[in-house]
Amino acid sequence: MNRIKVGIIGCGTIGSEMARACQDMLKSSVDLVGICDLVEEKALGLQKSLKEKTPVLKFDELIKRSGLIVEAAGAKISAEILKKAIAGKKDVLIMSIGGLLGNESLLDKAERSGIKVYLPSGALCGIDGLKSASVGRIDSVTLTTRKPPKGLAGAPYIINNNIDLSSIKEETVIFEGTASDAVKGFPQNVNVAAVLSLAGLGAANTRVRIVTSPDYTKNIHEVEIKGESGTITTRTENLPSKVNPKTSQLAVYSAIATLKGIVKSVRIGT
After folding, report:
1. pTM for the model
2. Which structural domains are found in the chain, ordered by start?
């Protein structure tokens, strides 16, 4: 089996764990050829923590050396990374899927270019059922996300609406609207809304509710899908990453599992 040359852009929680997985559980089939971050100190910090020293590369050099580019840098840059991957004829794994909403034409361009684009399900269960149901008619897709206040801190929607999260004493609906607006307002929190949209009815027709409470200790995603195949209801109770409360631990594992699926010959599930 040919080894895959992987380059990681973004050295935060997910990028760091993927880098370690490349040098550990996936070392028999993956070569980590480089890491990159807009903040070079973060890349250098990750480099020091890895078992095997991996070069810190500039953006374009990393793309040039990689066979598979892993984006874990954030929604503001994920579409640009996909553009670069298409131009360089490189496969790409996108974690910040929210950045692709409004740029769906890039996925069509990637298809025409013959490159593979991998979009992990992240901190959400039920994407397999949605993909299956999408073969037929889907009438509605609704996501309800519940997070503790600290997991929403700093989100543009919170800041722009002057919401004082510390004043919330009981379960409160913070947002209700389309997936398009949810991803704009909470770019670091609801990538699950983006992947749900791309797998189903699109961002304009996918409904999102965001609820918070100081009593919440987990990130919870509830999905309801209705269509001609029936009704699918899922509830995923995620524990936050110990490193970053804005990231669910399952999202980290989903990223690694997707990379593992790329290098393995046996595929399980839809």
Report:
1. 0.92
2. 4-121+250-263 (3.40.50.720), 127-247 (3.30.360.10)
